Amino acid sequence: PTAAAPARRPARPGLTWAEADSLSRKLAVIEERHKQQKAKKSQPVQVTQGELNSYLNLSYADELPKGVTNVEVRFGSGRIDAKGYVDVDQVKSSVPASSSWGAFSFHSGLVPIELSGKLVNQDGFATVELDSAYVASIRVPVSVVEQMVASSTKSEKHPDGYDIHAPFRLPYSVNRVRIEPGKATLEF
Fold this sequence. Notes:
By secondary structure, the protein is an alpha+beta fold. It is 24% helix and 31% strand. The radius of gyration is 18 Å and the shape is globular.
């Protein structure tokens, strides 16, 4: 007899494998339509914040920037709020010694981060406009977040890391993302 596969357990209450799998299936369909160049004719796809949070924390956790865990995204009326934890020691190790991260200089280990802003998008491109950022309940300038993201996302493909304010092309031929309370609608 073969042994049963171990049960997949959520990392925290409110996350479900059913929702993570639901978003994985939606993304697979979107990717297939994109490959077949049928995305432009596609119906909108709705993603709930439960699906996104479950997917990010259960299915996609190994792909998040290093040191980022326990992500929680909330969709409001045209707004996105995100919370999570950052392992400051991992992030600081990738920052040049000349860098000044005032809010992080006296922290170590896991630190709560809260971001609030909106996704501005049109014609297949988007930008992120942050309104506020908190590190360990202390409001910090958005420039600190910019530096943190750029430092923690450096790679061979992106030697300077990501600029959170730079316009970017939405994936899979998505033309627009409409943010509403509890959900995001991907329009093609």
